[in-house]
Amino acid sequence: MGGRQSNCIPPDELSPAPCPIHFAGPIAKWVGDDHTVDSPDDLSPIACPSASIDRSVWCRSEDSSTIVLATGSHSLLCLQFSARSPEKVWLIILSASQIVELHDRLTHEWHLDPAFVEADSSQPPLPQLGWLSLVASQHRANFELWHIEDEARAPGASDATLAGVKRRIDSTNQRRNDLAEQLDRTLLAELAPRGLPNPDAPLHSESPGLMIDRLSILALKIFHTCEELDRCAGPEAVPLGHAERNRERLSILEDQRADLAHCLDALWQSTLAGSRRFKLYRQLKMYNDPTLNPVIYRNRPV
């Protein structure tokens, strides 16, 4: 995990960027924390936990049914108004651009921090980020898995070393899948009080958690492809055509990630609108379960 800074992720582009968030539903009076809101015109900056709201970027649709706002990339919660329930309701903001920015920023920071490798992976990387901390934990599992997989391909590695690496791959991959499922559980628990997902809506074949997992892997592929481009600009000898190959790879990866991020946003908005639904799909891995893997339970000492 080299400490070199990739030219593809300059530090000045790692700062939080505004992300558009859409909330559907009629605007009703909300009274709380000394704030009274009767219409979008009356909205003033309201302090939300872990959120930063800029009044200047708020606008409303023609029928006033939707508030469009921008929040910093670390904003997790905001207000949703309901005519039937005039109290404030907190709702997780799922924004693909927030997730992509977080993946890129953490990938960059973790590669520059040798102490991160020794850190306790059972602790969430960014507990102050609430739900995005879970996104960060899932990305960390993929980050660790990527580099353990590299170790498995080290020339000259002994059989004992490879056996140890294989066990680390299994346990880390289990954690990766468990966290992807936890992302979906968290989102579904957040939607349930609102009667969502709509059980009559068409089913989406892939859940947000699985899409976020794929975005995480794409962030790692993009970072390491950028590192290979950096090699071409340095003194290290590289194979002929290495730069052209990796520029092509980078273009494909960025295009694929942009498509997937758009699909994630579309799924979430459709789910909130009740026109699409997703389910929790359990991975149900068997190889790590001593009661399900025959090689383990048939060879267990009596």
Radius of gyration: 22 Å
Number of helices: 7
What percentage of amino acids are in beta strands? 5-15%
Helix and strand pattern: EEEEEEEHHHHHHH
Care to describe what's here?
By secondary structure, this protein is mainly α. It has one domain. The protein is 46% helix and 9% strand. It contains 7 helices and 7 strands. The protein has helices at 96-112, 115-118, 131-152, 159-191, 208-233, 242-273, 294-297, and strands at 19-24, 30-32, 35-37, 59-60, 66-71, 77-80, 89-92. A 3-stranded antiparallel sheet has the order 1-5-4. A hairpin with a 2-residue loop joins strand 2 and strand 3. Helix 3 crosses helix 5 (208-233). The longest helix has 33 residues, at 159-191.
Secondary-structure topology with pairs:
Blueprint: E1 19-24, E2 30-32, E3 35-37, E4 59-60, E5 66-71, E6 77-80, E7 89-92, H1 96-112, H2 115-118, H3 131-152, H4 159-191, H5 208-233, H6 242-273, H7 294-297
Antiparallel strand pairs: 1-5, 2-3, 4-5, 6-7
